[in-house]
Amino acid sequence: IRKILKNTATMSSDGPYGRHGYQAQPSAYGQGASYSSAPGSGGYAAPGYGQPGQSYGGASYSAPAPPGGYGQPEPSPYSAGSGAEGDEDKSKSGKRSTALQALNNNVLIWAGFFSVSLFVYFMVSGGDFSFLMTYGAMARMFGFGILNVKTFTSKRATGVSIKSLQLYSLVFFFRLTSIIRHEGYLPYDKSGDWLYHVIEVLALLFTSSALYGCMVPFRQTYQADADKFGEISVPAGCGAVYLAVPVLVLSCIIHPNLNSDFFSDVAWTYAMYLESLALIPQLYMFQKQATGVVELLTAHFVAALGFGRILEFTFWIYSYHELSNSSGSNLPGYLAIFSQFIQLVLMLDFFYYYYVAIKNATPMVLPSHSSGMGMV
User: Cα 203 to the chain's mean position, in Å?
Assistant: First the structure.
């Protein structure tokens, strides 16, 4: 009995189910077996049969570790490339924000102009149809105001034609010499009593200021290589004479007689005819620019002049018969309508690309050659 109890005690301590570590000595099954629970190790040494410390021919089998190892979180399948996609999304978001801000600025510029226009109409105007003349003058003044903002805030004269500014300076000067001395060409509307004069004076000041900025402080940024209209057999920068001189001769020959004063009638007619051609050097410069990109403020400036021309063209369509000469012929009226119509035709392409730029809040891009401006 004592021998049996001793053997039993030995078995309980050293057997495969011994209480000291559950296996005090390796058995035939599992000798040399090991299992690593270290995270990520993934190794499992297979046991050998009957040979201590050996496995199948001395080789070991390692089970493949799962991604991230045992006990480690698996990487997300969506994490790869998420940084690049995030950067791309941020870039698109930034572009949308910039475009939206530009669109808001465009809307604010024109909203401010139309708000002032309504105020003037209800507070100063008498509501006569001839207010269109005053409104057209306001649009021109607004355009040259934008040009001054563009020139003096950016301190650059890029994309601006000095020749067009020279011609517009002549337009406002000669018109003022006529309407200050006589009333024959003033609007019948109440705004023609004083407001029309003030607008024309401000337009002349704005034009002269922009011309000064382009020719003196910011001359180094002026693109003389693109502003080449009419520079044939004349000194550089004097190409505008090919428009100014022939129009003056035409005005002396064909002009209305509302003031019954030759110099006053010719001065007003000269301003009318010349204004229809004054934008040609600017449109020509747009066409000759290498990139075709037009700054939005410059585009606003030209669009405002075009809008003013549309208003005046609408007025003279119904009032051209008043522009008769001393013999009673309406030829000056027909010529005034024709000259304004030609200007609007030349600007058709510009208006289209301007609308696209405003709609998309992007810089205005003109083709190198187009049907309308190809005529310039």
Answer: 26
- Position 81 pLDDT exceeds 60: no
Backbone angles phi, psi at 365, to 5 degrees: -120, 120
In 3D space, the residue among 167, 180, 163, 177 whose CA is nearest the CA of residue 228 turns out to be 163
Of 312, 184, 317, the C-alpha closest to 256 is 184
Instruction: Supply the DSSP symbol for 16.
Output: T
- In the beta sheet, which residues pair with residue 49? 29
**How far from the centroid of its chain's Cα atoms is residue 139's Cα?**
21
Average pLDDT of span 69-85 = 49
Nearest partner of 239 among 159, 172, 162, judged by Cα: 162
Helix extents (H) in the chain: 2-14, 82-123, 131-154, 162-179, 195-215, 241-253, 262-277, 280-288, 296-319, 331-346, 348-360
DSSP code at position 56? G
Q: 249-307: per-residue pLDDT in tens? A: 999 999 999 999 999 999 999 999 999 999 999 999 998 887 778 888 899 999 999 99
Amino acid at 347: M
Contact 298, 160 (CB under 8 A): yes
Amino acid identity, residue 176?
L
Segment (H or E) for 29:
strand 29-31
> Are the C-beta atoms of residues 340 and 349 closer than 8 Å to each other?
no
Q: Provide the whole-model pTM.
A: 0.73
Query: pLDDT tens across 316-349, in order?
Result: 999 999 999 888 899 999 999 999 999 999 999 9
Phi and psi angles of residue 364, each rounded to the nearest 5 degrees, phi first: -80, 125
Q: What would the two tokens of residue 214 be?
A: 């382009």
Distances (CA, A) of 373 to 13, 186, 214, 289, 343: 106, 33, 24, 13, 11
Residue-wise pLDDT for 11-59, tens only, equals: 444 444 444 444 444 444 444 444 444 444 444 444 444 444 444 444 4
Cα–Cα separations (whole angstroms), residue 209 to 141, 171, 215, 305: 12, 15, 10, 17
The Cα–Cα gap between 25 and 35 comes to 16
